[in-house]
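RECORD TYPE: inverse folding
INPUT: structure tokens
STRUCTURE:
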């Protein structure tokens, strides 16, 4: 790995759980239940949050005259609040990030979506470069309200036809302190993933399925593709266990089935705070390695083939409203860790700076043009290694 390597003493460590960190349950989430608005034969025509499996099974039919959003996380809450705020009906198909991108690719000749909202600035930029996003010169008014963190991404190309909504670390270096030798993880940094002491006890999400997994693994390739391949070859040789998503990685880590992992930032918080209560014995510790912590934007864009462009633009504007972003920090959800990117939004109390980290998470974002260009190559390599 060819990342800058200042002395390991510079690394910061956080020990969880976080005492007293939880937010109120919002009643609007319950309003996000599926609402049938008509029927066609045996098929329900519905708005609200929709299960992709029901669409595939023919149990629900998507209407082409109703805004359709492919989205990962918060589908119920977003559907309810967006329609309440704007009066615009919406069909939100909630699935994993990897499934969203695979579905968009499968529908390339006949897109069924109007808006995509998914983790990975490189992936969304690739859709833009391929001409799959509407590029008519429109920019949301609320783009002028990006805060400094949002501008780190948006200002790279203010004319691009996609917009960052939030950011997080697609992977924090985490470990279970009950495992042997994990006191060395702080010293090892990311090299802990390939250290023989943890052979067979390293876990990660599959980049072919999990949306955050690609911005995580690709971060190791940016400075040198050869070094990236060498690093991950060592991790595979160390017996890494692949999981469909971050949630089972967190569960395996807490159970001691694995000892070291790269775990998405929201899932890390979700593992120590469940049902509104902080788990006092949560067995997760975090290292912010001196060589850096990958960062990724969850971003949104509009299909070039949309027939409801005005509604799609209204959705983008709404996602970048300060009130909306404050709302998304308050949702009781395993991924409640939402980082606002617009001025005037109130941050979640879980966000650093906090008593465990006296600064914001030290994100390092990959160049999104590069990340999009090499996405298929890197994902295919991981698929070959894992047999997926």
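DESIGNED SEQUENCE:
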């Amino acid at each position: 790995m060819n990342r800058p390597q200042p002395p390991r003493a510079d690394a910061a460590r956080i020990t969880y759980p976080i005492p007293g960190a939880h937010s109120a349950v919002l009643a609007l989430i319950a309003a996000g239940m599926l609402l049938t608005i008509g029927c066609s034969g045996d098929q329900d025509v519905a708005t609200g949050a929709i299960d992709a499996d029901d669409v595939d099974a023919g149990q629900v039919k998507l209407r082409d005259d109703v805004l359709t959003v492919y989205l990962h996380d918060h589908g119920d809450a977003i559907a309810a609040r967006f329609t309440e705020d704007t009066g615009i009906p919406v069909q939100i198909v909630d699935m994993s990030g990897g499934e969203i991108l695979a579905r968009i690719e499968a529908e390339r000749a006949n897109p069924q979506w109007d808006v995509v909202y998914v983790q990975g600035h490189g992936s969304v930029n690739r859709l833009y470069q391929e001409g799959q996003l509407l590029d008519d010169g429109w920019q949301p008014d609320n783009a002028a309200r990006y805060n400094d963190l949002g501008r780190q991404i948006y200002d790279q190309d203010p004319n691009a036809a996609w917009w960052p909504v939030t950011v997080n670390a697609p992977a924090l270096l985490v470990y279970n302190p009950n495992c042997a030798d994990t006191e060395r993880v702080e010293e090892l940094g990311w090299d802990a993933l390939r250290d023989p002491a943890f052979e067979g006890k390293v876990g990660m999400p599959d980049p072919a399925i999990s949306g955050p997994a690609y911005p995580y693994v690709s971060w190791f390739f940016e400075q040198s593709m050869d070094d990236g391949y060498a690093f991950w070859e060592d991790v595979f040789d160390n017996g890494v266990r692949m999981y469909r998503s971050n949630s089972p990685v967190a569960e395996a880590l807490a159970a001691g089935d694995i000892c070291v992992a790269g775990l998405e930032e929201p899932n890390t918080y979700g593992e120590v705070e469940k049902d509104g209560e902080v788990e006092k014995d949560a067995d997760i510790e975090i290292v912010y390695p001196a060589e850096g912590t990958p960062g990724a934007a969850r971003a949104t864009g509009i299909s070039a083939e949309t027939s409801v462009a005005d509604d799609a633009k209204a959705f983008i504007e709404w996602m970048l409203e300060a009130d909306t972003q404050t709302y998304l920090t308050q949702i009781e959800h395993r991924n409640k860790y939402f980082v606002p990117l617009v001025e005037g939004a109130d941050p979640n109390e879980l966000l650093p700076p906090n008593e465990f980290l006296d600064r914001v998470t030290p994100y390092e974002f990959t160049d999104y043009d590069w990340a999009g260009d090499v996405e298929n190559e890197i994902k295919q390599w991981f698929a070959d290694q894992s047999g997926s």
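NOTES: The radius of gyration is 20 Å.
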